[in-house]
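Hi C.,

You asked whether I'd gotten around to modeling the 123-residue construct. I have! Everything is below, sequence then structure, no commentary in between.
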Amino acid sequence: MTQLSKRIQRKNQALQRLIFDLIEAGRENDAPIWRTTAETLSAPTRQQPTVNLHDLNEVEGDDILLIPGKVLGSGILTQEDITVAAHKYSSSAREAIEEQGTAMTIRELLDNNRTGENVRIIT
């Protein structure tokens, strides 16, 4: 049992399973991005990042943006063809992202991209 897995004490079984799957994928594919995401999701909710829509406009490139926290709907999203994976979305943030591109969960991203290529963590 790793030091990280000893710290994980979540009541949400789906989140706990996601954290363990992220650790496993990081190990299997030599992808440290999944380990970093697991560590962030295992932290208390108040320590997880919250990102507003206008913050996503500042990111350049075609990478998939991974937010291991919550995306809030403050601001206007101007980027087109954006792909965002997050733990949680506000309803207005999800709508705005889906108008410009794709909004998915971290579980969906992990299932589609086990190697973590072209993924950038936004905090």
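If it helps when you're writing up: The longest strand covers residues 64-72.

Thanks,
B.
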